[in-house]
Design a protein that fits this description.
The protein is an alpha/beta fold. The chain is 40% helix and 25% strand. Strands 1-2-3-5-4-6-7-8-9 form a 9-stranded mixed sheet, sandwiched between helices.
């Protein structure tokens, strides 16, 4: 896939924000002012939930600024079937099924989870790998790569199949297909997993079981009290120290 920059702006803290397309996939790259061909910045791929780049932009740019202050470049891609990208009938049906059972207070079946998540992983992971090919070819980016947040199943698959990713910070709470537990056992890179203990949309025990399944010798679970939107500022600081330790 060919990467084309479509716009750029310098943020008030010196971070360079560039929108791009990778083939027909929109994305954003943020690089710290210190990044250059002589001092390339390590890259962190920023994952996101399936809400679209426009809706997630304020949170993504906040994470990007935080990472840039530590000397990291960051990039994110619009997920398949999200934002302004074409929607497949199968993805729309899976989302409708999920909304129906959650509004009814019913348990989410394995069939719905598989239909919702597995096709997303199959599409998103090769796109993320193509993004790495293009972004690591830029002179101002180089060194180790990290993955941070987003749909945890995408992070699991990338950790298994992409050798350029040296460490991952994962957000517990995504609906996880049972087959991903088998893949989790094959993950060996250092992990930093964030869990909101009272997340109303998360099966806490399933999150703990997934953490237990990871095959990494170095893995840390950080659990904070509070719901999905109650992540404390200190959690971001912990993740920043994790990436600094493993990518620099």
């Amino acid at each position: 896939m060919h990467l084309t920059f479509t716009s750029e702006q310098r943020l008030d803290d010196g971070v360079l924000e560039r929108a791009f397309t990778l083939g027909d996939v929109p994305g954003i790259l943020w690089t710290p002012a210190s990044a250059s061909a002589s001092t390339p910045a390590p890259l962190i791929l920023l994952g996101q939930p399936s809400l679209g780049l426009r809706k997630m932009y304020p949170r993504l740019v906040g994470r990007a600024r935080h990472a840039a202050a530590d000397g990291f470049a960051t990039a994110t891609l619009e997920l398949p079937d999200c934002g302004d990208r074409p929607r497949s009938a199968a993805a729309e049906q899976a989302r409708a099924d999920l909304r129906r059972v959650m509004q009814a207070g019913e348990p989410v079946s394995d069939e719905i989870v598989d239909a919702l998540v597995l096709p997303l992983v199959e599409k998103a992971v090769p796109e993320a790998q193509a993004a790495l090919d293009a972004l690591l070819a830029l002179p101002e980016i180089g060194g180790k790569v990290g993955y941070s947040g987003g749909v945890i199943s995408i992070g699991i698959r990338l950790a298994v199949v992409e050798p350029r990713i040296a460490a991952a910070g994962l957000f517990a709470g995504s609906l996880v297909p049972r087959t991903m537990f088998d893949e989790a056992r094959r993950v060996t890179i250092p992990l930093h997993v964030l869990l909101q203990w009272d997340d109303e949309g998360n099966d806490r025990q399933a999150a703990l079981d997934l953490f237990d399944a990871f095959g990494s010798k170095e893995k840390t679970l950080v659990a904070n009290m509070g719901g999905h939107t109650g992540v404390p500022q200190s959690a971001g600081d912990d993740a920043a120290r994790f990436f600094t330790r493993h990518l620099k």
